Predict the 3D structure of the following.
Amino acid sequence: MLKRTLTIALLLAALGTGVAACGGGSTPVAAQPPKTADGVSVSVQDNLFKPGDVKVKAGQTVTFTNDGAVPHTVTGIGGATFDSGTLAPGRTFSFIAEGKGRITYVCTIHPGMKGTIEVD
């Protein structure tokens, strides 16, 4: 009986850790991106871009850093043509925002990960 109870407890703990690692379905709070000399930085963390929505001026650089534990992509959609390819943990990808308008991007590995860049 004790062995079965311990097994169930370990299984529940493992499931709880898996749910927490997936973000638990909560919506991240919007934050201002860290400014760099010529643009902004976005952290790619497991199941979200942080911040997911940024504003830059035309000609500024947007740099994405995979601060998570698994690979991701940063891929423009809806007419945007940039693509980081597979971005391993610890790696970065940068591009220069050109023109004015709204750019939408996703992680093609995790399609629920989305963000926007507003270019002034």
In short: Residues 46 and 104 are 19 Å apart (CA to CA). The chain is about 15% helix and 35% strand. The longest helix spans residues 2-21. The radius of gyration is 18 Å.
